[in-house]
Amino acid sequence: MKLVGITCSMNDKKYFLNIDYIEKIVSLGFLPFMINPHMLNFKDKIVDTISALIISGGGDINPKFYGEKNIACKNIVPDERVKGEFELLEAFLPTKKPILGICYGMQLMNLFFGGSLIQDINTKIIHTDGYHEIEIFRDFPLGEIRGMVNTSHHQAVKNLGVGLEVFCKTDDGIIEGFYLKEHPFCVGVQWHPERDRGNISYSLWQKFLKKVQ
Q: Could you give all domains of the chain from N- to C-terminal order, each with its CATH number?
């Protein structure tokens, strides 16, 4: 059975991961493997062992990682997690195995490639809760369609990282998905497909499934 690595959230005493990630990976026929920063002494073994990597959701990334002062971030992710996922991405990217960044995971990937973030979205669309429509305008990784996805974030991509290509946005211009050019499947999405039951999320997981070798 193939292993799919999933990074987890952390605080001073615990590692934690929402059960939706576990249930989704199991439903695809894979075995979830939770990765925390203290395991990265063995990152080469982890990279060799897992068949895909998911960078899960989380809180706010400290703006110091993209050269700004904090003006709107409250639930700050520990630096240890951010640095650990940067390290893991650097080791995992050359394998060309599938990578999926979800919400915080997408934002972290954007920073990894040299981008920056909007610290607090202020537009006509509510992004912190509920659902909104997105427009997908490139064939990869999804077809050119519109549809609804869930939303649970107050930050977003500002300046896009080097080598990334946007494939979907909301009507207020917020980037909801990108992929890394010249990679078989390195994708970031701003919504939470692990707990979304819509056609767009279903299609995304099917594309992910086909890429796992």
A: 3-211 (3.40.50.880)
